[in-house]
Amino acid sequence: MKTRKWFALLLLALIGNEEAWASGSVPSAAPGPAEVPSLALRTSVPEPSYAKSSGQLALFNGVNALRRKLGVGLLMQDPALDTAAQAHAVYLSAHSVAQHDQSVGSLHFYATTPLLRARRAGVGDTQWVAEIVGAARGPDDSEIGAGCIDQWYHTVYHLQSLVTNQESMGIGFSDTGALGLNHCVVDFGTNTATQPGPTPNGVPYGGGQQIDAEIFVTVPADGDTDVRPGFNFAGESPNPAPDLPAPGRPLMIYANGALAEVLSVEAFKLVDGNGAELPARVLVSPAAKADGSNGMADEYLRNNAAFLVPLAPLADREAYTASFSGTRAGKPVSISWTFRTATPGASTFR
Predict the structure, then answer these.
(1) According to the model, what pLDDT value does residue 4 have?
(2) 338 three-class SS
């Protein structure tokens, strides 16, 4: 059996707000307009043009496999975003870094920000552009692309970025660099019914593909098996729990936020098969905390997301039940779901 080895460098999942972005942090999304038309969720998209067995195809298929599983709408290939993302992947590999900015005059410089790179590549002035970046190594390009997706899936901020209301994507995948790593770049586009003034790296609350207001997306999903017990905290910067030496697999609940509606937490718990509640930390948006939510305010969370981070890895081969109660836009929400963890070496997207 082939052994995959994945390594995460500095990873940032930016979701809007120019001032915070300029300081190197992961800001909150821009508020939505008063009325928000949007696309119907896509359940199919045209076949992409990426080469068979390429890292680009693995990334494209991986993002859409996750979005199909969670019911948040598939993303179409955007050739202009492909150009921008590939230019950035080449830049990152040349400099052995993983970041969103480029320095003027540096080798392989294309443009400073994800938005400016996309505009140079040909996207329109109204399109919003967001980016996630990773680096991995493995036996072949397809495995490496899958490895980057797996890194992002087992995080907080990057997971959030994978499921938002964007509608297209472009893929960058570098050759193997000096550190033996291939860089993965996914640029997301949101162009339908967006407000003006795109930020350098962001997804707006309004427009794009919106889930129904009565739907709540959870990760892990109800009935999942082979769930990985740990959190890829080493691959996420900023780290949402820097004081925890080995946190468990984060749980996410995600709601419609087309008008920047706030998801507030009354209780968010995880219990094992014996009914024992696990010690955990709840992360909510600053807007939710201001609204009276329980949990710790995290400046990088969108208004419509909340996370539970166990203080230690989950047990292998254990059944868990998660429960959430709170409000979305002031209306009560109460849901619960179950999942089971894996034996060591589980597959991706769990």
Answers:
(1) 36
(2) strand
Do residues 248 and 308 lie in contact, with contact meaning Cβ atoms separated by under 8 Å?
Answer: no
pLDDT digits (tens, 9 = 90+) for 101-150: 999 999 999 999 999 999 999 999 999 999 999 999 999 999 999 999 99
d(CA 170, CA 159): 17
Among candidates 256, 29, 19, 10, which has minimal Cα distance to 128? 29
What count of residues does the chain have?
Answer: 350
d(CA 220, CA 331): 24
> Structure pTM?
0.90
Top-tier CATH class for 210-349: mainly beta
Residue type for position 100 = H
Amino acid at site 239 = N
Tell me what the mean pLDDT of segment 171-176 comes to: 98
Separation between Cα atoms, residue 320 and residue 38, nearest integer Å? 36
Q: For residue 347, what are its two tokens? A: 């597959």
- Alpha helices by DSSP H, listed for 71-138, are 79-95, 114-121
CB 164 within 8 A of CB 303: no
- Phi-psi sector, 105: left (phi>0), alpha (psi -120 to 50), beta: left
Q: Which helix (H) or strand (E) holds 67?
A: helix 55-70
Q: Residue ranges of the domains in the chain?
A: 50-209, 210-349
Are the beta carbons of 219 and 308 closer than 8 angstroms? Answer: no
Q: Which residues contact 80 (CB under 8 A, 6 or more apart)?
A: 118, 121, 122, 123, 170
Q: In angstroms, how far is CA 107 from the centroid of its own chain?
A: 29
* The CATH homologous superfamily of the domain defined by 50-209: CAP (3.40.33.10)
d(CA 336, CA 345): 27
Tokens of 273: 């098969």
Nearest to 104 by CA among 91, 115, 93: 91
Indicate the DSSP class of residue 148.
H
Calculate the alpha carbon distances from 313 to 24, 228, 296 in Å. Answer: 29, 9, 20
Q: Is the dihedral of CA 161, 68, 349, 101 positive or negative?
A: negative
Element (H, E) at 182: strand 182-190
Distance, CA of 199 to CA of 14 (rounded, Å):
10
